[in-house]
Every structure is written in structure tokens, then in C-alpha cells.
Amino acid sequence: MTASLIWQKSTYSQEQGECVELAADGGAVLLRESDAPTIVLTTTPKALARFLQGIKISRRGS
Q1: How far apart are the first and last CA of the chain?
Q2: CA distance 52 to 36
Q3: Which residue, 27, 33, 39, 43, is CA-closest to 9?
Q4: Chain centroid offset of residue 9 CA
Q5: Rg of the chain over CA atoms, in angstroms?
Q6: pLDDT of amino acid 18
Q7: Chunked in runs of 10, what are the mean pLDDT values of the chain (62 residues)?
Q8: 5 and 25 in contact (C-beta within 8 Å)?
Q9: Which of 24, 32, 27 is nearest to 5 (CA)?
Q10: d(CA 1, CA 42)
Q11: What span, in angstroms and rounded, lies between the C-alpha atoms of 57 and 48?
Q12: Burial category of 7 from C-beta neighbours within 10 Å (exposed 0-12, middle 13-18, buried 19 and up)
């Protein structure tokens, strides 16, 4: 991982914390929780898009 990553907060995040943050590192997308910034998940843009699409579909059904 690159030390100079630019982390971006989700627009759905609260100001008090509990934020999901994303960064790009080459062809990978990195995700972390602002309360635990040393724990980082790595995925691809395509896999993240499928995951988010699945969440949207499941929310419509509930």
C-alpha cells in the first residue's frame, strides 16, 4: 500500500465518526472504517460495484 493514499469519506457517513472511507491504489479499491483505520479491505472496482448493486437490490425488496 502507498503511504500517500487519499482517503475519501462516504457521503452517507456521520460527522461524529462511524465513517466508511475509500481510496484508490493502482487498480485496487481500499476500504476502511474511520474508527479502525489500520484495518483495510482491498477489492477491485468491478467487485465493489457488484457488491453495492446487490445491496441496492436487497434494500428495494425489503
Answers
A1: 38
A2: 21
A3: 33
A4: 8
A5: 13
A6: 73
A7: 80 74 95 92 97 89 69
A8: yes
A9: 24
A10: 10
A11: 14
A12: middle
